[in-house]
Amino acid sequence: MHNPWWYVPELTAPMVIAIVSVVHVLIAHYAVGGGLFLAVETTHAHRTGNADYLAYLKRHARFFVLLTVVLGAITGVGIWWTIGLASPLATRILIRTFVFAWATEYVCFLVEIVSAFVFYYYWERLPAGIHITTVWIYGLSAWASLVIIGAITAFMLDPGSWPVDRDFWSALLNRQALPQIISRTGGALLLSSLYVYLHAAITIADPKLHGLIESRSTRPALLGALMITAGGILWYLRLPESAQAALLAAPVLNVFMGLLFVATGIVFFLLFLGPYRNPGWIFTPGFAASVLLFGLIGFSTGEFVREAVRKPYIIYNVVLGSQMLPREIAAVRERGYLESGPWTRAFVQARHPAAIDGGKVDVKRLLALPEADRVELGAMIFQYHCNNCHAIERGYSPVGALIQGWTPAMIRALVNEPDSARFTMPPWSGTRDEAELLVAYLARVAPKRPSGMLPDRGR
Ligand code: HEC
User: How far is the centre of ligand 1, averaged over its atoms, from the C-alpha of 387 (Å)?
Assistant: First the structure.
């Protein structure tokens, strides 16, 4: 059954998810890495009795709590909101499959918030031992959320035997979980060090304190860069064959994949040559901001690639990008696409009651309607079936540009077998007659072949 869903002009709804998630991920990984940083460093500062360093950590904690708790929570809710609108079916399956994991994650989140507030607001009032324990509780529960959510997002790329056995543990402990947890933990360590560099470079004047922070946070940053690379390679090796092929076939993904490794490499060498080998050398806000920028670029492209290689699925082998379950396609093709969805049927009923025969949609009658009506119906089918991956005339992978200059016969061939043209597209899920409605619409959307090209066959 096709759910009604969210039409976002030009950008397409999944791109809104991509934007919100990238912003969220950049904050959420800092929430984990920064928590571990504060835990290790507060312990160190208490043990060595370094009051200056403690005072700095308190200032950092304020920045940290504001950014992670406020913005992190808002963008986190933003993800639920956008995925629920854009992919109700996939969201429902993720909620149902992982009820227990989500519940555990919410407990971790609650523990995180409470311990972060206690850690910051009771700074001078708690004995050192309890203060240290609080921040470790924060750091470890934040990391536990990363493990759980990392495993769930990994499930979307390779659910393993879950589609057959429906086993919670085989879903959670999927093949992609470990690589993602390794690279996400690495990302958390690296990103948080980069935020610390920038914050320290802007707010600290004392060179001695600078030197201390540099030397303390460079090692986790270098370790983080190595973990991202190791996790990334393992991720690639364990990808399903179709995802590897999708990665190689799409130019933009090729470029992004390269960018990811180049950006991580640049960050690694800048940190190695700068703070690690030559402390105090180039520790300026400009340097810190550039390294952070490379880190953010590497991270965002990584997330984008991870999302994009799943096509034609939203959840691999479970939910297709056309918002259908693979196992329901045969029945929907048999019954008719318009007839099978309550909302598509309601649309036909409202606009063309005469095309309803014995309570069922009669597509032959729809095909006899004037062209403008057929185009309108085709546009509606496009929304449900294709708009998840294609904008219309302009924007993200716009179908108009893809079929510029195509003949109706070419469009017809593609609509009836999109999965033969590109394995990254879901199969056509309607009847041949319904395909004609979509063909009528696409023929209207397709621009003419650009003029002035040689040889001109006079089209
Ligand atoms: C799950 C995502 C997804 C869905 C849903 C989807 N497509 Fe595609 N489509 C793709 C991808 C990926 C490509 C390759 C794009 C590229 O090369 O830029 C593509 C390419 C195309 C092309 C160009 C093919 C070629 O040979 O050059 C057309 C036309 C097209 N899609 C039309 C459609 C139509 C019509 C629908 C709905 C019936 C649809 N797509 C649904 C992902 C999708």
Answer: 10
Distance CA 86, CA 3 (A): 10
Alpha carbon distance 122, 127 (integer Å): 10
Q: Which ligand 1 atom minimizes the distance to the CA of 246?
A: 12
Quote the distance between the C-alpha of residue 272 and its chain's center: 30
Protein residue closest via CA to atom 42 of ligand 1: 425
Query: Nearest residue CA, atom 27 of ligand 1?
Result: 402
Torsion on CA atoms 122, 128, 132, 137, rounded to nearest 10? -50
Structure tokens at 112: 């995180």
**Is pLDDT of 459 > 60?**
no
Q: Is the pLDDT of residue 457 over 80?
A: no
- Residue 256 Cα to ligand 1 midpoint, Å, equals 20
CA 290 centroid distance within chain: 24
Indicate which atom in ligand 1 lies nearest the CA of residue 320. 1
Atom of ligand 1 nearest to the CA of 250: 17
Q: Supply the pLDDT for residue 251.
A: 78
Q: Which two tokens stand for residue 106?
A: 């919410």
pLDDT in tens, 57-73: 999 999 999 989 889 88
Q: Is 317 left (phi over 0), alpha (psi -120 to 50) or beta?
A: left
Ramachandran region of residue 452, left (φ > 0), alpha (ψ -120 to 50) or beta? left
* Centre of ligand 1 from the C-alpha of residue 404, in Å: 13
Q: Quick check: 451 pLDDT over 60?
A: yes
Residue 384: which pLDDT band, with cuts at 50, 70 and 90? very high
Locate the ligand 1 atom nearest the alpha carbon of residue 387 and give its number.
Answer: 5
Closest of 36, 22, 187, 14 to residue 84, by C-alpha: 14
Task: Using the mean position of ligand 1's atoms as its centre, give its distance from the Cα of residue 196 in Å.
Answer: 43
Q: Is the CB of 312 under 6 A from ligand 1?
A: yes
Instruction: Please report how many Cα atoms fall inside a 13 Å half-sphere around the Cα of residue 401, on the Cβ side.
Output: 10
